[in-house]
Each structure stands twice: as C-alpha cells, then as structure tokens.
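Operator note (shift B, R.M.): manual run for Flagellar FliJ protein requested after the automated queue skipped it. Running by hand, logging everything below so the morning shift can see what happened. Input copied straight from the record, untouched. If output looks odd, do not overwrite the archive copy; leave it for review.
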Amino acid sequence: MAANKLALLHKLEADKEDGLRVNFVQAERSFQDNQQKLKGLNDFRLEYSQQLFNKAQQGLSSSGFSQYHSFINKIEEAIKQQANTVATAKRVVEQRRKLWLAQQAKVKAIAKLIEKKELEKQRLLAKAEQKMLDEFATNIFMRRKLAN
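Run finished. Output pasted below as returned.
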C-alpha cells in the first residue's frame, strides 16, 4: 500500500515537474524574444542616428533636426522600457529555473526512496526465502536422521 502511495506521489510530482519545465521554457523563450526586440530597437536607433548624421552633413533645418532628435529620444525611451522588460524577463527565467530544479530534486528524491523501499522489500523476501529453505533443509536432515 505504501508503495502505491509513493508511486502516486512520484507521478504527481513528476507531472508538476513537467509543468514547471514548460513554464521555464516559455519564460526563456519570452526572454529571448524580448532581447531580440531590444536589439531591434538599438539597431533602429543606430540607423536613425546615422540618417540624422547624413542629413546634417547635407544641410538640415533646425526644425528637421529637432524632429529627428525628438524621434531619437522616443526611441531611447522605448529602449529603456524594453531593457526593463528584458531585466524582468531574466528574473522570471531564473525564478522558474530554480523552481523547476527544486522540483526535479524532489522527484529524484522520491524515486530514490521508491528504489530504496523496493530494495528493502527484495532483501526481506530473499531473507524469508532463505529462512524457508533453511527450515526445509533442516526438516529433511532431521527426517533422514530419524529414519536412520
């Protein structure tokens, strides 16, 4: 009965581990997506800054410069927000990784306990079998001795 309870507990905890692994993988994917968005924003800012530089060399009005500069500031604000999103996503990845690894350890500990219980059960069965064989051999010996 205890073995069945341990097996059920192992299954439940293994299922929980699978769910935590899926959560971790999703968080990691989200983190990578957010990093890509941040890289895209940085690339866009660099391109737009290069456009501003090129236009400035050709001659740019102050209102045109102001518009470029204002847009670059908006891009930089978006970069700051995206960097915060990336940092948050990284913390989530770490948190979910720790939860998953802790659950993995719990599942392994239960599996080890089940294995230990099974080995103990086999040892007791072997001991009982040996005792039975010893008693059988003793009975045969005693019968032969009495028969002689």
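Quick read of the result: The chain has a mean pLDDT of 93. The CA atoms of residues 89 and 115 lie 38 Å apart.
Leaving this for review. - R.M.
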